[in-house]
Write a structure and sequence with these properties.
Pfam families: PAE
Number of strands: 16
Shape: globular
Main location: secreted
Low-confidence stretches: 1-41
Helix content: 10-25%
CATH topology: Rossmann fold
CATH architecture: 3-Layer(aba) Sandwich
Protein name: Pectin acetylesterase
Strand content: 15-25%
Strand order of the largest sheet: 2-13-12-11-10-5-7-4-3-6
Structural class: alpha/beta
Subcellular location: Secreted, Cell wall
Keywords: Cell wall, Cell wall biogenesis/degradation, Hydrolase, Secreted, Signal
Order of helices and strands: EEEEEHEEEEHEHHEHHEHHHEHEEHE
Largest sheet: 10 strands, mixed
CATH class: Alpha Beta
């Protein structure tokens, strides 16, 4: 039987120019950086297309998207040695922190299944091709769609605006439905996610572990989910302000880990840096030390840069001045300091590179390809998780 094992913790800094420019966007609404996940890489001309399954039982549980429509997921059944192994991947896509942005969001695929693609390509960690995804190609691979705007943690409503904030219920409805379809018999289970989904994989990691018997091997992977409570270029805290709105508006505080909320305010407990040291389940963190979303939306957003001094730099690091690069290097150092304690546990793992990128598991060219990012000659897929006979 094939078994899942962690490799040794690896941290290295190697400048890679994977992302050199993005369009401007409103950081409180939909992130264009996160919107690339349905683009087909040139490395995969014929990706597996997987259909959308709406969760029929969700409505009775009040587990609905922002607009009240049913949530859903895409599932490709496992076979052979992977028939009883499950990979649950939580979709990312930013957050909405006030009524205006949530009303906007519910008219998109990030807030309504009405607008979700009926089929999406499975690439990277979700690929069905052994040469492109040797560890998970024949597992049951599921991508849970994101339509609540609070990393699958909210549970309240705004009747006046006709908004349902039911992320926690969606999470439970999706996992319960998958349990009934065979996941309860999983020999191995991995909860992963990208960006806002990467944050969700941290928030729900121990909860996911507790769904299975002790005989099941269960682990979690967060890709680009290590969002920092960092100071922006104006001296403010843009992301903390955003998260404060998300937590308060969507009733997130009731679903945050109690081991954190008994010591800290709810907004602080939405930041993974205050959670990771207390997670009991083995967790692997994959992150770019110069995370492009955080640079553009948290560190140097237009709201913190009214005169546009950071405009060129935030879109293309090759255009950063020496002083700007020093500021970004300070952000990198802060990230490495945040994970120091976490890295002391041999149950956990890290793959921190210095790419200017955001989300690396879903794209084939960063997940497993000839020119994928490497640390000590290991590409992401091999460096993060390996299977041994």
């Amino acid at each position: 039987m094939m078994k899942l094992s962690w490799v040794w913790i690896v941290i290295a800094i190697a400048f890679l120019q994977l992302v050199t420019g993005f369009l401007d966007f409103n950081e409180t609404e939909l992130s264009l950086i996160e919107a690339y996940d349905y683009g087909v890489s040139k490395l995969n001309y014929n990706p597996l297309m997987v259909g959308l399954t709406l969760i029929a039982s969700a409505s009775a549980k009040g587990a609905v998207c922002l607009d009240g429509t049913l949530p859903g997921y895409h599932w490709h059944r496992g076979y052979g040695s992977g028939a009883n192994n499950w990979l649950i991947h939580l979709e990312g896509g930013g957050w909405c922190n006030n009524v205006r942005t949530c009303v906007y969001r519910k008219k998109t695929r990030r807030g309504s299944s009405t607008y979700m693609e009926k089929q999406i390509p499975f690439t990277g960690i979700l690929s069905d091709k052994a040469d492109q995804n040797p560890d998970f190609f024949n597992w049951n691979r599921v991508k849970v769609r994101y339509c609540d705007g609070a990393s699958f943690t909210g549970d309240t409503e705004n009747k006046a605006a006709k908004l349902q904030f039911r992320g926690q219920r969606i999470w439970l409805a999706a996992t319960e439905d998958l349990m009934s379809r065979g996941m309860r018999n999983a020999k191995q289970a991995l909860l992963s996610g990208c960006s806002a989904g990467g944050l969700a994989s941290i928030l729900h990691c121990d909860e996911f572990r507790n769904m299975f018997p002790r005989t099941s091997k269960v682990k979690c992977l967060s890709d680009a989910g290590l969002f920092l409570d960092a100071v922006d270029v104006s001296g403010g805290r843009t992301l903390r302000s955003l998260y404060n709105g998300v937590v308060g508006l969507q009733g997130v505080q009731h679903n945050l880990p109690r081991i954190c909320t008994i010591h800290r305010d709810p907004t602080s407990c939405f930041f993974p840096q205050n959670l990771i040291s207390n997670i009991r389940t083995p967790l692997f963190i994959l992150n770019a030390a110069y995370d492009s979303w955080q640079i553009q939306s948290s560190i140097a957003p237009p709201s913190a840069d009214p005169h546009g001094y950071w405009h060129e730099c935030r879109l293309n690091h090759a255009k950063c001045s020496a002083s700007q690069m020093r500021f970004l290097q300070g952000f990198r150092i802060e990230m490495l300091n945040v994970i120091k304690g976490f890295s002391q546990s041999r149950e956990n793992g890290l793959f921190i590179n210095s790419c200017f990128a955001h989300c690396q598991t879903e794209r084939q060219n960063t997940w497993f390809a000839a020119n994928s990012p490497e640390i000590r000659n290991k590409p992401l897929e091999i460096g993060i998780l390996t299977e041994q006979a």
